UniProtKB/TrEMBL annotation, chain A:
Belongs to the ADIP family. This is SSX family member 2 interacting protein. Residues 11-28 have a biased composition (Polar residues). Residues 131-218, 376-403 form a coiled coil. Its main location: other. It comes from Aotus nancymaae. It is found in: Cell junction, Adherens junction; Cytoplasm, Cytoskeleton, Microtubule organizing center, Centrosome, Centriolar satellite. The gene is SSX2IP. One of its GO terms (biological process) is centrosome cycle. GO terms for cellular component: adherens junction; cell leading edge; centriolar satellite; ciliary basal body; protein-containing complex. Pfam families: ADIP (PF11559). Residues 1-28, 292-317 are annotated as: Disordered. It comes from the Eukaryota.
TrEMBL record, chain B:
Keywords: Cilium biogenesis/degradation, Cytoplasm, Cytoskeleton, Phosphoprotein, Repeat, WD repeat. The SSX2IP:WRAP73 complex is proposed to act as regulator of spindle anchoring at the mitotic centrosome. Required for the centrosomal localization of SSX2IP and normal mitotic bipolar spindle morphology. Required for the targeting of centriole satellite proteins to centrosomes such as of PCM1, SSX2IP, CEP290 and PIBF1/CEP90. Required for ciliogenesis and involved in the removal of the CEP97:CCP110 complex from the mother centriole. This is WD repeat-containing protein WRAP73. The gene is WRAP73. Pfam families: WD40. It comes from the Eukaryota. It is found in: Cytoplasm, Cytoskeleton, Microtubule organizing center, Centrosome. Its main location: cytoplasm. GO terms for cellular component: centrosome; MWP complex. One of its GO terms (biological process) is cell projection organization. It comes from Aotus nancymaae. The keyword Cell membrane does not apply. Interacts with SSX2IP.
Length: 614, 460
């Protein structure tokens, strides 16, 4: 980035400088129009530059343009285009090297400028996009600000409203309270009023009542009377007694008696309840002692005196109490003792239970802290796995047991021995098999050898035959050399028949022997016929056809001809002897066919020889 | 369950004798006494005018018939039909008449509560008690019949006088700290007197027999207060029903509140059984009829057209919107009654008039709720066992026991609208009273009924 900046900055400044200079020197330039153009299209393409320069300088104004350029360049700090003149009078010469250097430099500068320009452009683009982004951000933020401002205003408004409402509610509450107060006051006043009125009314009413009473009661109202047949006896059978002070006292006594009875009854009930509660307490205490004493034996050492004394106290108390409870005393001291001892016991029990709880919680916490949470699942899985394994093992054991039992049951003696024997036999069998295979291989080898021997023998026989044949032919040739041509021909035929073994070919040979005599005489140097034959042969490969064709074929034809193209035959005819020899060589080794071909070759050979002979 | 034939009745005046042998009922100016077992008329008395009130004497030997309009009281002897007694209050008039517990004195309250005249049947003596207070429950006798407490009003102050019933001697006389005393009630053990103020103020005062104030209790102020009060038969608890729809239970040791029972219209606790009376469709009724009744020898079973269903909680009960700007608004606990063994308390909240709440006093919690189709008119506990009979002014009577609930149609032509009921002492039968008739309903022995109730309860 820094590099880039350093590169671009001077470029930029220089460009701006050039531009400014261009503008300042437009008048001077001969092609001000073009420079203007340059200014307009601030970054002219190279092609344009070319065309511009081509137009800038013409045949006529070379000098002018050179001087202009020189001027321009010198103002830019380039070396002068002209050679340094020795004298002022002498006309300055254009220094080509300087021009080239200048041009190079200018080009370099141009490139640099272009690069810088590109960079600047990209930067510009970047900055533009950044600018856009920032602008959008800005607008967004502005919007946000606006919305938040609006929200704030709304909230403020709401707050204000709520406050207003709150104030109103407060006011209302106050009013309500006031009203309640007022109403209460009213109620109270009304109540007093009412009571007052009531009292007044009641007084009046009472007065009236009094009056009425006097009127009604005091007057001897005859009507008020009881008309009764005869008085009945009292329900209790006693006679009524006069009201005296005695009776009053008696009534009082009775009342108190009743009250006393009631209280006694209640006291009895309470006593019973108390006794029951005491019993429960005693029992609880005993149980506590029995519960705590064995446990306390250890902690007594730890929690030295306090609990020890307490316990001794408790024991004493227990003794006392058991004594006292027998008489069922309920005096305060006893009660205090009992409650105190129970309290102490209870405290001990509580602390003990708390300790236990703490321990338990500790253990729990520790357990939880370690891996209890995780290991629980694992544990279950593990146990499941183990159970499965156990099951499997059990099954295996069972099957094993069954198998063992079966074995034992079915054949405890025979089978084992046979098995043992079988073991040995198997071993032996194995060995025997190996031997057998070895033997077989040997046998195969032997056979192969025998076959090769027989083949060799056959080959030997064949070779011997061939050799004999050769010898016979050699002898024959020798003999023929001595005898006439006619004899030789017939002999040749005879020979052919003699060494062709197959019966089929016997007939053929017989035929051919007869036939061959005729064409042999007729077809002397008739290659056209042969060529015709070669063409027709592939179309009719049947033996009968072959025979027929053969019959019409000249003595030159042979089975080998099947593979030979007419062109091959031509050179045959051209250079007869050499090709013939080649054939004979080729046909020498081979199977029956080869032999046959060989035979035919020899046969043709003989013909060729015969042809060539004349 | 068997029903007797229907007898004529007027003024809902039908009472079993305290010894349980006889049944007295009134038809206009005639008093009919029947044998409870045979229902044969034992005695028939003719009064001078239409009877407005009857009461058996405690020893079941006499019956008083009050004719308030005429200011007359006639007394009849069961042993001596020819014996007669007529008390004329004359121009003073008569508003209330009752026996003293000994059965030899009659207390007549004159008009305007000018005085109470105590007439003796043994002697010629007549006693007057002045200044009785005109209030709902101004006189109360202890259960043993020894003492009578009387609310009095003198010089705009409330007083309570305690009399010895044997010779009508004033034992104690003390003023009570009440604005306007409304009721007094002895505890069943006869040693504590509960005194409560008018509905304008929540106040319960407890006095000992010797006139000492034991305790005063007030739950709240500035609102309508106590509507009903009931002692538990064991004298251990005092239940106070109030206009705020709550029952507060006070204990007898500290006289403080142990607990308060709210009567919400919505019941959410799944432990509480809510029995809901449901009208049965005819098909269902027939189906139910095919059930053989568990009792042998019962008469033709009446076609009951309603049954109880156990509603699944939460249940919302039907409530009345009370008119609060009138006097005596229909809110609050208007009725409450302890079962004879003090184990249960039955209550009715007046703005949920068709429901009866049954509370378990041992556990101090709601035990069951019965919602009837129509407002509950009256309920009464069986004197022998925790069994509650309810009537709603319809032709059915409803029974609740801890084992279950059942509804029984009262047989007979026409509609027998049960307006009130009263149990026989033994709990074996009860009298069902309608406007013009009454009949007896005989229940089986305890065990049989128990099983029947259980079975029916299970079915309903």
């Amino acid at each position: 980035m820094g590099d880039w900046m350093t590169v671009t900055d001077p470029g930029l400044s220089s460009e701006s400088k050039t531009i400014s200079q261009h503008t300042s020197e437009t008048k001077m330039s001969p092609s001000s129009l073009y420079s203007q153009q340059v200014l307009c299209s601030s970054i002219p393409l190279s092609k344009n530059v070319h065309s511009f320069f081509s137009a800038f300088c013409t045949e006529d104004n070379i000098e002018q343009s050179i001087s202009y350029l020189d001027q321009e360049l010198t103002t830019f700090g380039f070396p002068s285009l002209y050679e340094e003149s020795k004298g002022k009078e002498t006309k300055r010469e254009l220094n080509i090297v300087a021009v080239l250097n200048c041009m190079n430099e200018l080009l370099v500068l141009q490139r640099k400028n272009l690069l810088a320009q590109e960079n600047v452009e990209t930067q510009n683009l970047k900055l533009g996009s950044d600018m856009d982004h920032l602008q959008s951000c800005y607008s967004k933020l502005k919007e946000q600000l606006e919305t938040s401002r609006r929200e704030m205003i709304g909230l403020q408004e709401r707050d204000r409203q709520l406050q207003c409402k709150n104030r109103n509610l407060h006011q209302l509450l106050k009013n309500e309270k006031d009203e309640v107060q007022k109403l209460q006051n009213i109620i109270a006043s009304r109540a007093t009023q009412y009571n007052h009125d009531m009292k007044r009314k009641e007084r009046e009413y009472n007065k009236l009542k009094e009056r009425l009473h006097q009127l009604v009661m005091n007057k001897k109202d005859k009507k008020i009377a009881m008309d009764i047949l005869n008085y009945v006896g009292r329900a209790d059978g006693k006679r009524g007694s006069w009201r005296t002070g005695k009776t009053e006292a008696r009534n009082e006594d009775e009342m108190y008696k009743i009250l006393l009875n009631d209280y006694e009854y209640r006291q009895k009930q309470i006593l019973m309840e108390n006794a029951e509660l005491k019993k429960v307490l005693q029992q609880m205490k005993k149980e506590m002692i029995s519960l705590l004493s064995p446990q306390k034996k250890k902690p007594r050492e730890r929690v030295d005196d306090s609990t020890g004394t307490v316990i001794s106290d408790v024991e004493e108390d227990a003794g006392e109490l058991s004594r006292e409870s027998m008489w069922d005393l309920s005096c305060e001291t006893v009660r205090e003792q009992l409650t105190n001892s129970i309290r102490k016991q209870w405290r001990i029990l509580k602390s003990h239970v708390e300790k236990l709880d703490n321990q338990v919680s500790k253990v729990h916490l520790e357990g939880f802290n370690d891996e209890d949470v995780i290991s629980r699942q694992d544990h279950e899985q593990e146990t499941e796995k183990l159970e499965l394994e156990i099951q499997q093992c059990k099954e295996m054991i069972k099957t094993q047991q069954q198998l063992l039992q079966q074995q034992l049951a079915t054949a405890c003696d025979d089978d084992t021995t046979s098995l043992l024997r079988d073991c040995y036999l198997l071993e032996e069998k194995e060995r025997l098999k190996e031997e057998w295979s070895l033997f077989k291989e040997q046998k195969k080898n032997f056979e192969r050898e025998r076959r090769s021997f027989t083949e060799a023998a056959i080959r030997l026989g064949l070779e011997r035959k061939a050799f004999e044949e050769e010898r016979a032919s050699w002898l024959k040739q020798q003999f023929l050399n001595m005898t006439t041509f006619d004899h030789q021909n017939s002999e040749n035929v005879k020979l052919f028949s003699a060494f062709s073994g197959s019966s089929d070919q016997d007939n053929l040979t017989v035929h051919s022997r007869q036939l061959q005599k005729k064409p042999h005489s007729m077809s002397n140097g008739s290659p056209v016929c042969m060529s015709k034959l070669t063409k027709s042969l592939p179309a009719s490969p049947s033996t009968s056809d072959f025979c027929q064709t053969r019959s019409c074929v000249s003595e030159h034809s042979s089975i080998n001809v099947l593979n030979i193209t007419p062109e091959d035959i031509k050179p045959n005819q051209v250079g007869g002897e050499c090709t013939n020899q080649k054939w004979s060589v080729a046909s020498r080794p081979g199977s029956q066919e080869g032999c046959y071909s060989g035979c035919s070759l020899t046969y043709t050979n003989s013909h060729v020889e015969k042809d060539d002979l004349p | 369950m068997n029903f007797s034939e229907v007898f004529k009745l007027s003024g809902l005046l039908c009472k079993f004798s305290p010894d349980g042998k006889y049944l007295a009922s009134c038809v206009q100016y005639r008093l009919v006494v029947r044998d409870v077992n045979t229902l044969q008329i034992v005695q028939l008395y003719t009064c001078l005018d239409q009877i407005q009130h009857i009461e058996w004497s405690a020893d079941s030997l006499f019956i008083l018939c009050a004719m308030y309009k005429r200011g007359l009281v006639q007394v009849w002897s069961l042993e001596q039909p020819e014996w007669h007694c007529k008390i004329d209050e004359g121009s003073a008039g008569l508003v209330a008449s009752c026996w003293s517990p000994d059965g030899r004195h009659i207390l007549n309250t004159t008009e305007f509560h000018l005085r109470i005249t105590v007439w003796s049947l043994c002697t010629k003596s007549v006693s007057y008690i002045k200044y009785p207070k005109a209030c709902l429950q101004g006189t109360t006798f202890t259960r043993d019949g020894r003492y009578m407490a009387l609310a009095e009003r003198r010089d705009c102050k409330d007083y309570v006088s305690i009399f010895v019933c044997s010779d009508w001697q004033l034992l104690r006389h003390f003023d009570t700290d009440t604005q306007d005393l409304t009721g007094i009630e002895w505890a069943p053990n006869g040693c504590v007197l509960a005194v409560w103020d008018s509905c304008l103020e929540y106040k319960v005062l407890l006095y000992s027999l010797d006139g000492r104030l034991l305790s005063a209790y007030s739950a709240y102020e500035w609102s309508l207060g106590i509507k009903s009060v009931a002692w538990s038969p064991s004298s251990q608890f005092l239940a106070v029903g109030s206009y705020d729809g709550k029952v507060r239970i006070l204990n007898h040791v500290t006289w403080k509140m142990i607990t308060e029972f709210e009567h919400p219209a919505a019941i959410n606790n799944p432990k509480i059984v809510v029995y809901k009376e449901a009208e049965k469709s005819p098909q269902l009724g027939l189906g139910c009829l095919s059930f053989p009744p568990p009792r042998a020898g019962a008469g033709p079973l009446p076609t009951s057209e309603s049954k109880y269903e156990i509603a699944s909680v939460p249940v919302s009960l039907q409530t009345l919107k009370p008119v609060t700007d009138r006097a005596n608004p229909k809110i609050g606990i208007g009725m409450l009654a302890f079962s004879p063994d003090s184990y249960f308390l039955a209550t009715r909240n007046d703005n949920v008039p068709s429901a009866v709440w049954v509370w378990d006093i041992q556990k101090l919690r709601l035990f069951a709720v019965l919602e009837q189709l129509s407002p509950v008119r009256a309920f009464q506990w069986d004197p022998q066992q925790p069994r509650l009979a309810i009537c709603t002014g319809g032709s059915r009577v409803y029974l609740w026991s801890p084992a279950g609930c059942l509804s029984v149609q009262v047989p007979g032509e026409g509609d027998f609208a049960v307006l009130s009921l009263c149990w026989h002492l033994s709990g074996d039968s009860m009298a069902l009273l309608s406007k013009d008739h009454f009949c007896l309903c005989f229940l089986e022995t305890e065990a049989a009924v128990g099983t029947a109730c259980r079975q029916l309860g299970g079915h309903t």
